[in-house]
Amino acid sequence: MTNTELVLNMLAELSTKRISETTDPESFDDHSNVAKQGGEIARDARLELESKTGEKVISPLNAKKVLLKNRNKEINP
């Protein structure tokens, strides 16, 4: 996972938390809608960044691959 992907994930989580704090959802459906709204904010930011840079944000990397790659570098410099 790249730094950009991590930041966008954090944006989604923070947005969801803030929306939840201000709307005080009660039911499961309310919470689900809040989570979707938070995700939409991050999605919109990703799409805007991609349109401005001409580069895709989503990478084939995931945290496990990155950790293993870094660990292998430490073992076999």
Write the H/E string, N to C.
HHH
Q: How far apart lie the N and C ends?
A: 22 Å
Helix share of residues? Answer: over 70%
Tally of separate domains? 1
How many H/I helices? 3
Poorly predicted runs are none
Largest sheet: none
Estimate the mean pLDDT confidence.
Answer: 89
* Radius of gyration of CA atoms, rounded to a whole number: 17 Å
Q: Which term fits the overall shape?
A: flat
Q: How many β-strand runs?
A: 0
Assign the structural class, choosing from mainly alpha, mainly beta, alpha/beta, alpha+beta, or little secondary structure: mainly alpha
Give the DSSP E fraction (strand runs of 2 or more residues): under 5%
Describe how the helices and strands are arranged:
Blueprint: H1 3-23, H2 28-53, H3 63-75
Helix pairs in contact: 1-2
Report on the architecture of this protein:
The chain has 77 residues and is mainly α. The chain has one domain (3-75). The protein is 78% helix and 0% strand. The chain contains three helices and no strands. The protein has helices spanning 3-23, 28-53, 63-75. Helix 1 (3-23) packs antiparallel against helix 2. The longest helix has 26 residues, at 28-53.
